[in-house]
Design brief:
15 helices; single chain; binds glutamic acid; alpha+beta; 8 strands; 5-stranded antiparallel sheet; Beta-lactamase; 3-stranded antiparallel sheet
């Protein structure tokens, strides 16, 4: 049975109210820009597969996409090179280790395993074709814009903040290169990866981006196909395995939807065929997931009975 607009409206509003009562966490501080974002911001948005938009709170505030960008560059690389090539060259398994782990690379002969950790995302960015970093970057930016259904911009301020502090990621780039798992100049790959993390989106944008996956690849607001239906399950599977850092298993167990978070405070979850839920709030837990955004997304998913692993009746009464 289709979920009613009223049910979604109520779920979004209640999730926003409930999440505001949740405390704890701290803004990411290793990227100076992120430390300066007001911690009290909190927005929630849902976009359905037929393009209806629901929101509450600071859902129009523009925040840094960060790691959530990995989902869309992955989708682009799958379109351009085929899903099998990505699985072979980058991997399709969880690492079980933090998103920027060097140990994960060392334990796996330099293969990143997941396109949703930094090493795998840098390797994925290195696979996007282009004669120059700018050409490669333009494809990634266009892809983010197609998913969002509006032109997405790079923030010079976020990008400068990241490019001048991303020494750990540069080390990862060189480690990949030495293992033969970086497919362009490694510093170019890190540059492009850093730019893809430095665009600004709103919770509403993020929900549209997720809803484009929920429909099977067509943006429900613009009506334009963004990626092929065949690649969507692969993207969602990667999100399930590694989308919420080392808490991905906990998330699957408790929420039951493919998700992706970023250290900018955004979290996205996709209910295939139905809708996407996005939330934003800067303070993060130790794993790197926004405390309030996780609570809000989980609240909406629970209220609407969206757990993918639950038989319909159990999900509806959850
Ligand atoms: N730009 C960030 C980094 O590479 C993104 C991390 C994240 O959101 O997980 O460190």
């Amino acid at each position: 049975m289709a979920i009613s607009s009223d049910a979604i409206r109520q779920a979004v509003s209640a999730a926003h109210t409930a999440a505001l009562m949740v405390n704890g966490g701290a803004n990411a501080s290793y990227i100076p820009y992120l430390a300066s974002v007001p911690s009290g911001l909190m927005g929630v948005a849902v976009v359905t597969a037929d393009g209806q938009v629901f929101s509450a709170g600071d859902a129009d505030y523009r925040f840094a996409i960060e790691s959530i960008s990995k989902v869309f560059t992955l989708a682009l690389a799958m379109e351009l090179l085929g899903a099998d090539a990505i699985r072979r060259k980058v991997g399709a398994s969880p690492t079980g280790l933090p998103f920027n782990s060097v140990m994960a690379l060392e334990l796996n002969s330099g293969k990143p395993l997941s396109p949703l950790v930094n090493a795998g995302a840098i390797a994925t960015a290195s696979l996007v074709p282009g004669d120059t970093a700018d050409q490669c970057w333009q494809k990634i930016l266009d892809c983010q814009s197609s998913f969002a259904g509006r032109p997405i911009d790079l923030s010079a301020e976020v990008n400068t903040s990241e490019q001048t502090t991303n020494f750990h990621n540069r080390a990862i780039g060189w480690l990949l290169y030495s293992a033969g798992t970086c497919y362009s100049d490694p510093m170019r790959a890190v540059d492009v990866y850093t730019r893809q993390c430095s665009t600004l989106i709103t919770a509403k944008d993020l929900a549209v981006m997720g809803a484009t996956l929920a429909t099977g690849g067509v943006n429900p607001v613009t009506g334009k196909r963004v990626i092929s239906t065949a690649n969507v399950p692969h993207v969602l599977a990667e999100m399930t395995m590694e989308g919420l850092y080392t808490a991905s298993g906990e998330w699957a167990y408790t929420v039951g939807l493919p998700g992706k978070s970023g250290v900018g405070g955004g979290i996205l979850a996709v209910a295939p065929g139905k809708l996407a839920i996005a939330a934003f709030s800067p303070p993060l837990d130790p794993a790197g997931n926004s405390v309030r955004a996780a609570a809000a997304v989980a609240h909406v998913a629970r209220s609407l009975g969206l757990n993918l692993y639950a038989p319909a009746a159990a999900a509806a009464s959850a």
